[in-house]
Target: Mannitol-1-phosphate 5-dehydrogenase
Amino acid sequence: MLAVHFGAGNIGRGFIGSLLSQSGYEVVFVDINDEVVRLLKEKQEYRVIIADENRQEQLIRNVSAVNSQTEREKVIDYITKAHLITTAVGPHILPAISAILAEGLQKRATINKTPLHIIACENMIGGSDVLKSHVFAKISEADKPLFETYYGFLNCAVDRIVPNQKHDDPLSVMVEPFFEWVIEKRNIIGDIPPIQGAHFVDDLKPYIERKLFTVNTGHAIASYLGYYKKLQTIQEAMNDEEIRSDVEKALHESGAVLVKKYGWNENEHQSYIQKIIQRFMNPSISDEIVRVARSPIRKLGANDRLVGPAVQYYDLFGQVPLGLVKGIAALLLFDYENDEEAVALQKTIQETGVEGALYQYSQLEKDHPLVIAIKDQWQHLK
Model:
């Protein structure tokens, strides 16, 4: 079996690529990093280090790579032969890979009429739907029925902490022991693709929101409160009793939303929250606060990890969620000068105030009780 995976970065190698290799696929990474592509071609293997007290290592074999800029025809040829296509390139790169993917799928349709699943493993909601929309924008109307017949774009939720890191061997990558890869069955064509460790479900939304409103929410709040206290790593932040308490408070609020919406067992979800807290405190992983906190404007989105659960909590319970509010207020103070979004956010706040920023980025009306509470907390922290 052949899997073509776009993105040979740490998540691509340490999470998706390693699981595909362990599932029996030959994995061909597609990337533009010359050194990584060259080394994958030469070695055809790499190490994945599990970040726990034992530091267990996995040797991932049967891998190779191609450069999508200099070896375009090879990429297209692999697409025509693939049994599975996955991505881990970052949401903003999906439009960039859609052209070569569309071209490869068009050629495949003329010579290999077998079903193919494409899974965008990105930290976003509906990543595969987004990728599909970009691909379909590059094909003719006549080709679309053929694509619908043979190509299933499967949405998924992925969860594994892979921090920034450097090793003597550039291909080695360290990952946390925990991982979750949940794939929605809705667009499957034919058989479910064999993927070791993946969990296929009928409805992805509850799992997407559980991850977004727990892992991403907690990570973000720890990073912004940690930055506010001038700490360097998520682990330092989570070892601060006040920050850890604030994170837990926010996750109980977002958890109340999830339990109410999806009818989950409250005790089981509280256990899930505690598992997430322990992951953030893993002493074997050093995750930089400024890495986790980057892109604050995106994280202020109306349906994203902070404002999303805060609005739903207010709508469901008629109360202001003070833990989430404090996290949002801390985000509004994130002024890291090497992050373009942080700089732009501070400029917006200077020009339009907190109310203007929340209206522009979060679609919150200026008289919404959340806006009033966030501004009060922002002034208190400031």
